[in-house]
Amino acid sequence: MNSLTINKSFQAEKVRFTSVKMTVTIYDGREITVPLAWFPALKSASKKQLNNWRFIGEGEGIHWEELDEDISVENLFV
Questions:
Q1: What are the 10-residue block averages of pLDDT along the chain, 78 residues in total?
Q2: pTM of the full structure
């Protein structure tokens, strides 16, 4: 039996970028915008690399394979 549960309060639905910020939209409509400077791998990435991401854990995290970067959505709110 798997006891892992996904906290839907922080389940991402959408990710988008400007040249200096990342905005994550949560399923309940909340959005959080953070500076790319918080994540050096993202800050120095090309636009193509930034947009080559996928959700992990049913939206609880964001993963960039090429950049070897993982971000917890919940931790963006802390």
A1: 61 96 96 97 97 96 97 93
A2: 0.86
